Amino acid sequence: MSVGLAGLSTAVALARRGHSVLVLESTSELLHVGAGVALTSATRRWYESEGVLQPNEEACVALDGIELRNWATGDLITKTAANPVGKQNAIHHGDLQLALLSRAQTLPNIEIQMDARVVDIDIEATSITTSSGEQHTADLIVAADGIRSTIKPYVCPPEAAKAVPTNDAAYRFTLPRQLLELQSTSDDSSGADQDALLGLIQRPWASRWDGPGKHVVVYPIRNHQLLNIVLIHPDREDQAEESWTSMADKSHVTEDFRGWDPRLQKLIELAPQKVPNFRLFVHEVCPAWHKGHTVLLGDACHAMLPYLGQGVAQAVEDATALTTVLSLIESPSQIPLALQAFETSRKERVAEIQAATYQAQTKLHLKDAEAQRIRDDDRKAAGQQKQNSDVVQMQQQYWVWDAAEVAARVLRGLLV
Ligand SMILES: Cc1cc2nc3c(=O)[nH]c(=O)nc-3n(C[C@H](O)[C@H](O)[C@H](O)COP(=O)(O)OP(=O)(O)OC[C@H]3O[C@@H](n4cnc5c(N)ncnc54)[C@H](O)[C@@H]3O)c2cc1C
Known about the structure:
CATH architecture of the largest domain: 3-Layer(bba) Sandwich
Distance between the termini: 31 Å
Shape: globular
Number of helices: 14
Radius of gyration: 22 Å
Bound molecules: flavin-adenine dinucleotide
Oligomer: single chain
């Protein structure tokens, strides 16, 4: 396991149920990088129940809904309020990782070793070797080592372990509230409505602009003190790397979003000179999630496009399902059976969400102006009938899922 969100979530859940956990992380220190991540209402509740987030957590903003805007004019197309199931929560990736780390440090049965890159695994012996030559043997190895997983090729066919480019990349940055407040009192000739700009951070709403081949999502995080801005754009291979620390020159962002809503152009103007840029890769549905006593989870297993805000939710469902099946077995010899139940309970669900993220990509990035008009008219009509529209509906469709119940049911079926 590592200190990614999937690894730490699983470590905390297992340790709280009495297991001893060793976390091996390749980086030497936890860098507070990335930007906002979405937590579904169920994911937020799970983090509260595990003592990672507090009910009145200031790091999170519970969003009342999403406003969809015309990409060029900024005109409001429709507003979709949070559904009865609950609200989407927004948090900085780094804040959530720190909250997980703090929680892990309160649990005496978790040991975390930084600068411990796993370089080899012996599946038969359930042991791994780190770059310093240290060997560790355990009852179970959980590979939560992200999209470029070292362990995945040992568990499933190497061709299925390859990350696949999606031809999209994401510029991500945050702006402090103070900067936006300062901006609102200054003279400005950009054509951006200053109050509306400030409203983006003051109000608990997300906003999205879907344009040809691109889209932008903006929402407040950290108790409305930071504005999170994600600009999805076609991947230029020369520009972005598959790394959370890769940067693009601001001029590329300006160029890519020229002609968009003046508000967005203003936000880009306020961005730092170097903007984090990340090529979006995915894994195709993984044919095998476990081998012997080794199991894959999180992005190592099913990295997906972030367009339905399901990356963390699926990692947490993995953690829930895995801890459930491990709590129901009576001896380590039943671990392969438990892992089989884990895989069966998760595979179909994850494949369905992965497929939906591709549909969302198509819907968000329509290039033809007439197709965009029809889509946006449909959204407006849905809004007038108090219905959620397309991608929002798709997103919320996946919010209710009892990963523990499904995993337990599958395991009980295998045990008879
Ligand atoms: C630094 C960072 C910033 C991110 N920021 C955002 C964001 O702003 N918004 C967003 O939507 N998503 C972000 N993500 C992705 C998001 O966290 C994941 O999609 C999701 O949470 C599932 O995470 P994961 O733990 O499975 O994988 P990851 O988050 O990729 O974590 C994998 C971990 O494994 C470690 N690791 C890799 N190889 C080895 C090895 N051989 N030995 C030991 N350790 C290893 C990595 O250093 C990393 O800590 C970020 C990921 C990272 C790593």
